[in-house]
Fold this protein.
Amino acid sequence: MKDCSYEILDLWNKYEGNTEAALAGETSPQCLYAFSPLRENLFEWMEFPKGARILQIGSDYGACTGLLAGRSKVTAVLDPRDENLEVNRLRHGQRENVVYIRGDLFLGGRRIYKPREDAGQEDADGILGEPFDAVILCGIWDWYGKERACEALLEAASYVKPDGILAAAAENEAGVRYWMGAQALETAFLEVEFRELFETLKKERGGDFMMYYPVPDYRYPVSVYSDAYLPQPGDVTNISARLDGEGLWFGSEEEAMTKACRNGEFTKFANSFLGVWRKGSL
């Protein structure tokens, strides 16, 4: 999805920070993407150790930052754009354990974005210099494109402490919704491409990984399947909701997914992927 930070900031001001009112009063996919509570389902099932340090790469309008901050001692949000961080700060700035860092995975010059007055001498490099229990990649693939995706994943993995995890979500270029006429919204991967990224990560950094499949997609997940637990024919329902735009309709996505499940092809046609790598073993 194209960046809509300024639109989200306008909505935040219009509804005085009341996201429920914004969702009730607006119909734009941008509002739904930024404020829907379904966004948190992508990581809600994950367990983090007590006192966890979490690095969220990609502010993603703060959709999952509240959940992550509620389960960690420190959540650092890294994003190269002030407007993205500002949306997040307005939503979660009251949380004392969230630190916003303006910067990029590869470029220097990182700095704390609008540090709190009571935060003392926080230093961006110092915060990022200590490894994290979890590194979460949110909506970053348009930054780097498929050409640098592997490089970005390997760099993100360098921030993970032993036995920590890295989790990254992506759109499936061959997802059933696209065969049925939906418009592509962002950099997407075929299953073999996204799995290859994690195979390379495993080869280069050790550990192990598991592929998960949020349904209907990673933006608004209702169910999350995995290679260890795949759906049976008829399990994948409510997948046809077009929450990011109307597009065209060439058939029933539910019927198509039922056939894919029956043929053992669910993973190739799921709309999204979530790869989870552990620096150790799953």
